[in-house]
Write a structure and sequence with these properties.
This protein is mainly alpha-helical and about 300 residues long. The protein is built from twelve helices and three strands, in the order H-H-H-H-H-H-E-H-H-H-H-H-E-E-H. The protein is about 65% helix and about 5% strand. The longest helix is centred in the middle third of the chain and has 34 residues. The chain is globular, with a radius of gyration of 19 Å.
């Protein structure tokens, strides 16, 4: 499982110090350079770093925060191309033959599962949802979110399940160890999200983030490609950003509907496991794992 995907790290230059330098360079672009748009914006509109009071202000705050991932992606690109001297798309597929159809497959299946989950909740607990649609703000949000949220989710996958997972594969061939380590790193870096402080249980929401990382790493190694994870991650964040937004969220966008109750972290965890299991067995059952695959180039 995942041998071909992990082999991509052996392309180019892969000494340990290159990974240390690469993480530092990528982190510098993300944390320091990525904060510049927010700082500049705050000079003209201090509300951008506090709680926005209008739907339009929510869009601008989301934009300023999300721009940091453009720098994150740029830093990762420079790291792979210059420090490791390998093709950037090998983070997705070892031979750099990427299938947009496979990405769309992951996105569409995950979006349908989310719609079913929220639909069932809306039927039995309609009071959990409030219609908060603001046409002006939403029409402004949609094109921005389609670009920036797609960049954000893809960049996280490229870094955690691409760069780190492949890099750690040079140290160990134990697939589950690689999955567990990258999932733990992914979870820890999300502990600063407002959803964590608002949760009724740190343990269960921490396990939830860990499970998300584990799921994306598992399907990446199972598929020998990052395509499904990129698609599912993007669909998840776009759904929550544009259609049904939690009342406390790092996305903080004027979605069509707001989920007005703080979700029970334990229930959310098990619902995610159910949704992830359905996704896994649907995608990898019978011949569905062949859908959307391009002809692979010789490795």
């Amino acid at each position: 499982m995942g041998a071909a995907f992990l082999s991509a790290a052996r392309q180019g230059k892969n000494q340990w110090w290159r990974y240390v330098l690469g993480i530092l360079v990528t982190g510098f672009f993300w944390v320091f350079l990525g904060s510049i748009p927010l700082v500049i914006w705050a000079l003209f509109d201090p509300q951008i770093i506090t709680q926005p009071t209008t739907p339009i202000a929510q869009v601008w705050q989301y934009t300023a925060v999300s721009l940091s991932f453009v720098f994150f992606l740029l830093g990762l690109f420079i790291t792979v191309k210059t420090i490791h001297q390998r093709r950037f798309l090998t983070l997705i597929q070892a031979n750099a033959a990427v299938s947009p159809k496979r990405i769309f497959q992951g996105a569409s299946v995950w979006a349908v599962l989310m719609a079913i989950s929220y639909g069932i909740e809306a039927i039995f607990f309609p009071a959990h949802f409030t219609f908060t649609f603001n046409a002006t703000a939403w029409l402004l949000l949609v094109p921005i979110a389609l670009v920036l949220t797609s960049i954000q989710s893809a960049t996280e996958e490229l870094f955690f399940r691409g760069y780190l997972l492949q890099g750690l594969g040079l140290l160990s061939q134990h697939r589950w160890l690689l999955i567990l380590v990258t999932s733990a790193i992914f979870a820890v870096l999300h502990f600063g999200n407002p959803e964590v402080s608002a949760s009724n249980s740190f343990l269960w929401i921490a396990l939830h983030y860990f499970a998300i990382g584990l799921f994306f790493a598992l399907i990446t190694l199972k598929d020998n490609s990052l395509e499904l994870a990129i698609g599912a991650h993007a669909a998840n964040n776009l759904f929550l950003g544009m259609l049904i937004s939690p009342n406390v969220s790092v996305l903080n966008t004027p979605a069509v509907v707001t989920h007005t109750v703080n979700a029970d972290a334990q229930i959310d965890f098990f619902l995610f496991l159910l949704q992830a299991s359905v996704f896994y067995f649907f995608i990898f059952s019978r011949n569905r794992n062949k859908i959307g695959r391009p002809k692979r180039l010789p490795q």
